[in-house]
Amino acid sequence: DGGNIQGDVTAVAAPGGVGVQFTIKFSNLPKVGGPFPYHLHVNPVPSNGNCTATLAHLDPFARGEDPKCDAAHPETCQVGDLSGKHGAIPANVSTWEASYVDLYASTVEGIGAFFGNRSLVIHFPNKTRITCASFESASGSAT
């Protein structure tokens, strides 16, 4: 039935230094239950793998989840609501890839929009967490 999602997320400073270029590749996605939202979360994943311990979405401006993110106005969304701004992982696919620039996340350490010391969580639409992974720095970049 799918599950045990595997994949890679590469995130580097966007050309021109504004925003982050995300390149995402996931495979072995669940065959039912989508579309699947995904978000940057506040904490990294602890060594025991507990996705709940990643806490809430990255939201340094305390926007909250209501009203729902409007992709036509990404500047009004939570920094961590990547699927709200760029589209959820579709239902009924076993693999999915996306590449986009998010203008609101940052590779600059020390500011609230920095994601390099945080995690990415994939959810079912009812907000149940399916899987999660922490970002790790590679050659000076957060990936």
UniProtKB/TrEMBL annotation:
Q: Where in the cell is it found?
A: Cell envelope; Secreted
Q: Which reaction does it catalyse?
A: 2 superoxide + 2 H(+) = H2O2 + O2
Enzyme class, broadest EC rank: oxidoreductase
Q: Per the annotation, which location comes first and is thus the protein's main one?
A: other
Q: Which InterPro entries match?
A: SOD-like_Cu/Zn_dom_sf (IPR036423)
User: What GO CC terms are in its UniProt record?
Assistant: extracellular region
Q: Cite the GO molecular-function annotations of the record.
A: metal ion binding; superoxide dismutase activity
Q: What is its EC number?
A: 1.15.1.1
Record keywords, A-Z? Antioxidant, Secreted
Q: Does the keyword Repressor apply?
A: no
Entry superkingdom? Eukaryota
Family, per entry:
Belongs to the Cu-Zn superoxide dismutase family.
Annotated protein name in UniProt:
superoxide dismutase
